Predict the structure.
Amino acid sequence: MFKLVLTKLKNLRVLIVARIYQSIKMIFVFGSNEAGRHGAGAAKTAMRYHGAEYGKGFGHYGNSFAIPTKDMNLQVTELRFTLICLSNMLLQILLFSSKLHELEQA
């Protein structure tokens, strides 16, 4: 019984935080995997409350932004991301950020 109450309180807290993010126009940035399987942790929260889409491992969806930190097999590899890959992701994040800023100014 106590565990159930704690779980419900935790879910309520996450929902309240999600509503705050939406009301102040913040983007929930979370670590994902390339397969976009958002089954646990921040990725699950992003899918549940922030509009992240299952099967999408990188990019802006809803009021979330997925950044892959694991490969398609959900494995973390130390040399997984090359400099080119990281710079491409950073460029896409910066472009998204500038578009978001333009929308807020309109």
